[in-house]
Amino acid sequence: MKNYFDIKDEVAFVTGASKGLGKMFATTLAEAGAKVFLVASGAENLKKAEGELREAGYDCMSYAANITDAAEVQKAVDLCISAYGKIDILVNNAGTGRINKTPQDTTLEEWQKVIDINITGSFICAQAVGREMLKRKKGKIINLSSISGKIINKGVHGGSYDVSKQAVDGLTRALASEWAPYGINVNAIAPGYFMTDPNKEFFKADPGFYDVALGMIPVGKMGNPEQLAGTLLYLSSSASDYVHGSILIVDGGYTVW
User: Fold this and answer.
1) In which residue ranges of the chain is pLDDT below 70?
2) What is d(CA 190, CA 112) in angstroms, rounded to the nearest whole number?
3) In a domain, 203, yes or no
């Protein structure tokens, strides 16, 4: 039987790959046989992540880049193409978290930072990698949305984050409609509450919010980051060849209410 989830020797370009979900995504793809090119803004953590993957025997490279700087992103893409000859998979993961302030207390600078990183940065990366995929008429782009792309989260402020993730959903559909005819699948993963390091800090600072969020999850527990690995492999492989513009929610049932 054909292994529809086979990505051996594919090349994956993963942003925000130095820690958290991005590091887990890069590790998952490497373990599945892909060559991985890691991108993140923090050079020290990035080199550490690259070293850990290399020590485990995986083929990887890294380059520190700010995803809101088109020239830096293009340099990273050029280096990946020079080293590996292609990019088969883009995991458009890099982003910034929620600024937990009411709309009336949010400064324009705080608003703009979230919008610039989460939506403009996602577009810059998709555009740069997409141009390479268009040449080969082949590629998988996985954007990182959130349940906040569908709802406004209960018990917490930070509308700029919700708006940015709803824009990521729109970007996913827009790119899918443009690039599907060229053999490029553009989809998104929309996680609910997972116990990543940023979320652990967020919950620690506001235990009341943790209780509210947990009470909204039908399965009764927060997600483990590794529970996103299967969804990632599905969207990265030929198993999803007829999936275009989908936003796959992985949230323990949070959004069923």
Assistant:
1) none
2) 22
3) no
